[in-house]
């Protein structure tokens, strides 16, 4: 598959000198769903704004469908649909017009059947003649989605789409994302709900302090998540891990009173039985054992934290 969005060393320094993007390089394949994870202030919205042409990068280059977002703005922009983080609708405008005008803005011919289908799919059809100000927060979000899809974009950006939305809208949203994926639309979403990224993304990127710390296939990341820890409390503390156990991924904890064994849950053998036998052979007496699973959340927090240490 070819690259739909190419981000080459993108930088953004805001007025006042704050560096929100410090050279992000990323290639997004046509038809994939990429989730960008990162804490508040990481630069997710800034990156999306630069790709969508709302904000100009201070350095580097960004292309959408081969069109440079600065020099070839119109072409690049017409390929992109954006569901923004903040609701930015005209309060006195009617739902129908809001969505229809948005299509017109991109120079696409009027297509009332398409707008009707969109509004029906988003459960907005009954509200088509209502003014935006008469809608609930969840419905305004639905209008934002309809608006983003009105001109048949090839790339859809969803910036924190589910922050504070109800279960029903969340479910509708994922149904729409699935439909769009089936149509071959490339989807980039930002979130700080990790389970959400886990559920729908093909690839996961982690961004922190304006830098992309990692981009990885979800399946590879899940395999990494499959690590578990076996904690073995010892009767008598150890000074060091015995030489004969150097094959195992072991660490001493709690001033030698515990051994922590990390193993891969996806592996054919965990090695636990062999390790316990080896400990018994060394005359090491166990007091208690427990296991715990490392989560994507921990991997994520660890990464972001390491990023802070380096800064
Ligand atoms: N217009 C702006 N002027 C100055 N600083 C900004 C502006 N917009 C965002 N920032 C700063 O840039 C950083 C990244 O913001 P943003 O891209 O919104 O992060 P995220 O979407 O990951 O929460 C933040 O520290 C934010 O305060
Ligand atoms: Mg944001």
What's the helix and strand layout?
Blueprint: E1 3-13, E2 19-29, E3 33-37, H1 44-51, E4 59-64, E5 67-68, H2 73-78, E6 80-83, H3 95-105, H4 112-121, H5 137-149, E7 155-159, H6 167-182, E8 186-191, H7 194-200, E9 203-208, E10 211-217, H8 218-225, E11 227-234, E12 250-253, E13 258-264, H9 272-281, E14 286-293, H10 296-310
Parallel strand pairs: 3-8, 3-9, 6-7, 7-8
Antiparallel strand pairs: 1-2, 1-4, 4-5, 9-10, 11-13, 11-14, 12-13
Helix pairs in contact: 3-5
The structure holds adenosine-5'-diphosphate (ADP) and magnesium ion.
The site of magnesium ion has 5 residues, from helix 1.
Task: List descriptors.
311 residues, ATP binding, 33% helix, alpha/beta, binds adenosine-5'-diphosphate, P-loop_NTPase, nucleotide-binding, 10 helices
Describe the structure.
The chain is an alpha/beta fold and 311 residues long. It has two domains: 3-223, P-loop containing nucleotide triphosphate hydrolases (Rossmann fold); 227-293, Alpha-Beta Plaits, CATH 3.30.70. The protein has ten helices and 14 strands. It has helices spanning 44-51, 73-78, 95-105, 112-121, 137-149, 167-182, 194-200, 218-225, 272-281, 296-310, and strands at 3-13, 19-29, 33-37, 59-64, 67-68, 80-83, 155-159, 186-191, 203-208, 211-217, 227-234, 250-253, 258-264, 286-293. It has a six-stranded mixed β-sheet with strand order 6-7-8-3-9-10, with helices on both faces. A hairpin with a 4-residue loop joins strand 12 (250-253) and strand 13 (258-264). The chain starts with a strand and ends with a helix. One of its GO terms (molecular function) is ATP binding. It comes from Litorisediminicola beolgyonensis. This is ABC transporter ATP-binding protein. Residues 5-234 form the ABC transporter domain. Keywords: ATP-binding, Nucleotide-binding, Transport.
